[in-house]
Amino acid sequence: MDMKKRITLELRNRNPAEIAELVVDNSRSADGEVEGLTDEFTGLEVLSMVNVGLSSLAKLPSLPKLRKLELSDNNLSGSLETLSEKCPNLTYLNLSGNKIKELSNVEALVNLKSLQSLDLFNCEITSLEDYRESVFELLPQVTYLDGFDQEDNEAPDSEADDEDEDGEEGAGPTGDYDDEDDEEDEDDGSEGGEVGLGFQEEEDEEDYGEEEEEDEQAGVQGQKRKRDVDDEGEEDEDDEDD
Fold first, then answer.
1. Which residue from 7, 125, 221, 223 could staple onto 36, CB 3.0 to 4.6 Å apart?
2. Residues 124-132, mean pLDDT to the nearest whole number
3. Quick one: how far is CA 33 from the chain centroid?
4. What is the pTM of this model?
5. Number of neighbours of residue 101 by Cβ within 10 angstroms
6. Helix (H) and strand (E) counts in the chain
7. Nearest to 16 by CA among 48, 38, 45, 46
8. Are strands 21-23 and 46-48 parallel, antiparallel or unpaired?
9. Dihedral over alpha carbons 205, 211, 212, 215 (to 10 degrees)
10. Counting beta carbons within 10 angstroms of the beta carbon of residue 105, is it exposed (0 to 12), middle (13 to 18) or buried (19 or more)?
11. SS3 state at 226
12. Strand 21-23 vs strand 92-94: parallel, antiparallel, or unpaired?
């Protein structure tokens, strides 16, 4: 999909001025230029154009609020001076995987006064002797180069990572509390088991008592029945004597 069509789809019939973040990664630029972006994107703060075949930034529109620009895996070798003219408030710029070979190419970024983080990973310039020292000297406003500062301290983690860490720390007390609940449940269960057992024994005794009463009644009836039969036999003998 070409870049212009991709941008139209990303808009979803919204006003370009309402868009704060735009991602058109892996779309295609027909002539190596920026296509579909206009000066109407006045509110754009984050723009990602990774692997779109860019070889020039000459047609990049004015984006006064842009803070973060992703341009990795393109064919850029120069024309970076356009960035300071069109995106003066950039704080983060990723140019990794491009064809930047000389310090003179990077020198064009000196007027990006707010630039704090610059990524040139996988560019030929990184093979130059004293590459890091030279870039930091050339661009004193830059704090992090390829993710590390001059003392090789890594750039701070994102806010999302901090939230994850907080969540992990909170997991301990929650787990302990659950264990206590489980123990209480086990105690309640054991007491309930004893009560149930006693209740069952009472039921068994009642059933046993009822069975004895039934047996006694059956015995009485049997004796009565036998007695009645004997009585009848005696009466018959008396009649014969008469």
1. 7
2. 95
3. 36
4. 0.65
5. 15
6. 5, 6
7. 38
8. parallel
9. -170
10. buried
11. helix
12. unpaired
| Average pLDDT of span 100-127 | 95
Q: What is the pLDDT of residues 182-208, one digit of tens each?
A: 444 445 544 444 444 444 444 555 554
C-alpha 222: how far from chain center: 82
- What is the C-alpha to C-alpha distance for residues 12 and 34, in angstroms, rounded to an integer? 20
Instruction: Let me know: does 3 contact 28? Beta carbons within 8 Å.
Output: yes
Q: Which residue carries 């069975």 as its tokens?
A: 211
Q: What DSSP line would sit under 134-174, residue for residue?
A: HHHHH-TT--EETTB-TT-PBPPPPHHHHHHHHHHHHHHHH
pLDDT tens, position by position, 203-213 = 555 554 555 55
**Pairing mode, strands 92-94 and 117-119:** parallel
